[in-house]
Prior knowledge:
The complex is a heterodimer of chains A (668) and B (250). With 668 residues, chain A is α+β, with helices and mostly antiparallel strands. Chain A contains 19 helices and 19 strands. Chain A folds into three domains: 11-30 and 50-214 and 246-285 and 434-498, 3-Layer(bba) Sandwich (FAD/NAD(P)-binding domain), CATH 3.50.50; 289-430, Succinate dehydrogenase/fumarate reductase flavoprotein, catalytic domain (Flavocytochrome C3, Chain A, domain 1), CATH 3.90.700; 507-628, Fumarate reductase/succinate dehydrogenase flavoprotein-like, C-terminal domain (Methane Monooxygenase Hydroxylase, Chain G, domain 1, Up-down Bundle). Chain B has eight helices and seven strands; from the N terminus they run ββαβββββααααααα. The chains are: A alpha+beta (668), B alpha+beta (250).
Amino acid sequence: MAIKKKKTPTKAKTVKTNSRTSKVILDSKIPAGPIADKWDKHRFNLKLVNPANKRKYEVIVVGSGLAGASAAASLAELGYKVKCFCYQDSPRRAHSIAAQGGINAAKNYQNDGDSAYRLFYDTVKGGDYRSRESNVYRLAQVSVDIIDQCAAQGVPFAREYGGLLANRSFGGAQVSRTFYARGQTGQQLLLGAYSALNRQISLGNVEMHTRSEMLDVVMIDGHAKGIVVRNMISGEISRHAAHSVVLATGGYGNVFFLSTNAMGCNVTASYRAYKRGACFANPCFTQIHPTCIPVSGDHQSKLTLMSESLRNDGRVWVPKDKKTAEKIRKGELSPNDISDKDRDYFLERKYPSFGNLVPRDVASRNAKEVCDEGRSVVSSGLGVYLDFADSIKRMGENTVRERYGNLFDMYEKITGTNAYQNPMTIYPAVHYTMGGLWVDYNLMSNLPGLFAIGEANFSDHGANRLGASALMQGLADGYFVLPYTIGQYLAENGISDRPSIDDSAFSVVQDEVESRIETLLSIKGDRTPTSFHRELGQIMWDKCGMARNKEGLEEALLTIPKLRKEFWQNLSVPGKNTALNQSLEHAGRVADFLEFGELMCRDALQREESCGGHFREEHQTPEGEAKRNDDDFSYVSAWEHKGENKKPQLHKENLVYDEVKMTQRSYK
Amino acid sequence: MNLKLKVWRQDNAEDDGRFEYFEALDISPDMSFLEMLDVVNEGIISDGDEAIAFDSDCREGICGTCSMVINGVPHGGQKGTTACQLHMRHFNDGDTIVIEPWRATAFPVHRDLIVDRSSFDRIQRSGGFISVRTGSVPDANATPVAKENSDLAMDAAQCIGCGACVAACKNASAMLFVAAKVSHLSLMPQGQPERNRRALAMVNQMDEEGFGNCSVNGSCEAVCPKEISLDFIARMNREYGRALLKKGCS
């Protein structure tokens, strides 16, 4: 096979290190033809890398969650040389591990009429028609392979007595297509991917860098060719060059400070790529998960999710009457004192056909609505009941314990309340971010050579993700999509297209990274990184959270820059760079969140419609449901950085729906 | 409530380390233990001093990152609870709380309460996997697994790799950790082809890393946040013995 060499990175060219192609063209590269044939045809058309040459190509994978670990392992199995980086002390600890409920796959093992087409349709509809049809169809297609792969790795999925895999119905789906491993599905899938990665590390095909934080992307001649990394133990800054860079760095939910993300989750990798020219797509699309444990006080450091599967058997309610709710809040009444006729099972009342199983955005918004009406049942004013009394009566406590035992235990640990005897209290919390780096059908960003997979990209979930689809997408991208599509880029550009780390572009970026760290350490002000982060989070939650409006967003666009200014004048980061310094790590992440939050608000402001998790108060139906505007907004908003303190430029990728009929979602 | 903290401080692996004392004032019983430390750290940073370094990430008891010995007990002694899920309602006003890192030769201290657990990763790399390539696998339902075996495998597979078992053991043994992985994979039909090789490799690597031998005290099981049973150590010993015999016969 002839490898077409398009360019040779010469010294002369690399001088323009940070130059971006001035014109961004969003070519989604969706293959032609019937939707069911696109992926097969595309795979055939993709260029292949000669097996003997694969070892001459190096790929950097940043992140070791489901997407990163599966991609690093699969690429290494194919023969590529892989370097994988994670900020955790072990790749096994990435936050995919905390996913509880399950993973979807169109196996149709239950014979209940599921198919790739149905999973595709449900996902596009659930995403409120803001995802890319071709990518979603491919996701549904490869979902079946994921289950096979994980079972072969020894993932102990739940099984029936006959020895076959068990399924459950999950979050808004009317077929049982969710595979699970008790309430620890993410953990078991991640340990599977981690074991595959470990095998490749032991074979010498993957070089693993733990406690290593990527602080910037290095662009050479418009292509992503490396990264600059801080060793979190020694503070040493190092350069890493490769033929291609893959970001599997997760979501940005921690811009809200309080979210169900792990403490270390951050936007830095994606945001640094954005500042080097990668478009950021749909940043305002965030998912608020309905079933989290309510905030208990100002000390709160993060929020804990209770699996959505609880809504299969738990009933969500508040008192019908505000006064009764007030008595509960004051501790004068307990939930068990309220008779059934005085309870408002508001999801069952408003959505009789889906009841408690309406999609996440709908469930969350309704919980907020009843709390805003003054019918909350916790003292902070932010909480509703999730009640298992009827299920315990119907199935017995043991069956409930078998299904949800670990979740009930966790709830008791955190709240000190036994949920077998009293209803749980829950409230929505930020959980997942559908937005991310813009990618084409090959999962490559608009920067050649830079790929984004898993939660870090934007393409599959539209404006709202269905339950049990995050694990599916992370593993689909890592095991079954990227390993093929990256070959096209590598084959096109050739073996010699890998710079040396001595290239001037690396020096420039390293200098920038180091001077930024110096600055953070030298401000010596009064406020901690956490206090800035918390304040930003409050602005984001109030103005760009479950409900947004023009006035609030415009206000946030004024207050965030002010807070950012204060951050760079009054930050306190004790210690030094040349040692383990958690305040410094946090400060760097908060600095990026302080810029990124503004981009989110800007995106939310321009999207004058409500769709999925993005609810603009100005755009709702008379019944208070989200009102989409397909004529004007069925596009992906992709933002291009135009320089410091300059307004980013909005690019639009129009979304075309050939297969799925766009309708107003109805779960009535 | 108001508390006194006696905390291990150590600048790096070479430093001797020492205890330092801090006050934790106005602590709410609803705080988690780590949130209490956050509050103390906020005060330390505001004073321009370096915060107490400690590891944590998910704060949901599943990632296995948090690792501290609280009053002599790894994770603080609440049954089946990681430090991040331990709440201050279990402490009393006026208590003095002693906080130390995991202490084991195979877990050198990076700083304060943060230790290096890469030895666990190296044990996993030595054989804690099933060698299947992406895509080269049969349909998931082509290999039925008895529910009892799958459930028991899951009991073992829940291990979060935190290292509390090592920290609790007077021999700093990693037997419970290694047993959990060896048992999980040996209970699954998919794990059979490499069963013997895996048991030998993982046990050998464990020894090489400098972990001690099983003391049969069961302190590992007592502190394990996932309540992994000591039975798995017996199972691993059987797996290891079986593998040795097979090796001898071949």
